[in-house]
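Listing S7. Sequence submitted for prediction.
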Amino acid sequence: MSTVPYWLQKQRKPDLQNLAAHVGMEDYDALLKTDLEVALDDYLRANQTSLRDDPQLSGFYKRLGSPVKRESEGVTTTSVVEAVKKPGLSGTKQRRQTLKAREGLESPIQLLILAIEAFGLFSRLVPLKHLTTLPAVPALGLKHEIALRLPDLFALLTSEFWGPAGLWLGTSVVLPACGAWFWNLGAATAAEEGSAAGYDPVAFGVVKALLGWIVYVRGGVAGESRGVVEGSVPGGSAGMLVGAGVAVLGGLYEAVLRK
């Protein structure tokens, strides 16, 4: 698949739509910005003989260089071009394909943030217990004895573990997930695309930030569990708020890409 020139990528979507109208493309209104970039790239390449002298397109053709035969590029994006040329296609299929390629973007980021918080809390609540001592083996380069320590899983059966763990799960996972499910800002867009709405990462981050501010910053929950969670998560309450902010920014970025 050929790379879309940067000259097209840096344009705003309204500018791309105006450019598409200028060169005579049809049925481009339903395309996402990235699909419109690809469609314009293909259209301008295919019609460069008649459009090359257009002053509005000088930036595109200057960077394009010599004519390129689309047949020699291997896998191409003909599906997007056909959607532009055929008035009966609305671009819904292209929307789904593009969003499917992006749908995993925020989930790994959000999971990474939660994993870092969970690791800090688990390390605090489940201490390492001495299991055995491995003898020195000079032949293998081990000149000293090595103490083998493993997490004491019996700590999972105590209230000292489940108090802070339950508080963290409630404020960082369960309640934000519920809020993101019922307060879905992208439900309307998903309905138009014929796909399941799922959860909203923006709402997830907002709810998590509000809970973190109320519970940990303002001290909305009394007891030792709050202090344990705040002292175990990297960065404390500020770190949790930063993680929630990253989730919000990731969701907003995805929302912009959907426009």
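Caption to Listing S7: primary sequence and predicted structure tokens for the chain studied. The chain has a mean pLDDT of 77. The longest strand covers residues 128-134.
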